[in-house]
Amino acid sequence: MKFIIKEQRVHDSSYIPKRLIKYSPPKLSTASRTRYIAMYEYTSPSDEPTHLFINGLSFDAPVTEHPKVGSSEIWYVINLTEDNHPLHVHLGLFVVREQIKLLDFDKFKDCMVDMNDAVKCNIHKHARGKKKPVPKHERGWKNVFKMMPGYATKIFVKFSYIHSNNSYPFDATKEPGYVYHCHILDHEDNVMMRPLKLVN
């Protein structure tokens, strides 16, 4: 949003409508693939946090997420840390579907630290705990949502306009690409950010 400050007064004819736009609900059947996004925190020998990674990778590691422009995907965001992490996906709007507590958390985390593979670590056997309801004010289309520690949060991500289902009016595949990251500044500065490269 751009603000232009003028010296003289101007008439503002804008108003708040009685009803906001009602966007279409997500259609999970349209998801073209499922991804597992794991959040890690690393500590020093004295148990002080040193850095944070997504999927065990630094920001400088090669791109691993290549969503297709106009596609929809299911992401299971797995928070293996002790903190909330507000995830922000550039060019992706999403709806939070479920927040599921991870059972046998330490066992699952040890496996993830060792293998960094949610499927091989049997995520669906562990993501069977208590479901935390998504707050009413968080149930619409989002571009940031807090991922709870010890939970797998299922989100439906759309890489197109949600009001028209049209693709973007610009070439989203151009370099340098985009990112997804924790929206806490010192976390993203400590590498809790990954590149996102859209393709046709």
From TrEMBL:
Provide GO CC annotations from the record: endoplasmic reticulum membrane
Q: Where are its TM segments located?
A: none
| Protein name as annotated | Plastocyanin-like domain-containing protein
Q: Where is this protein localized, as stated in its record?
A: Endoplasmic reticulum membrane
Name the Gene3D superfamilies on file.
Answer: Cupredoxins - blue copper proteins
Check the record and name the InterPro entries matching this protein. Answer: Cu-oxidase_C, Cupredoxin, LPR1/LPR2
Family affiliation: Belongs to the multicopper oxidase family.
List the cofactors.
Cu cation
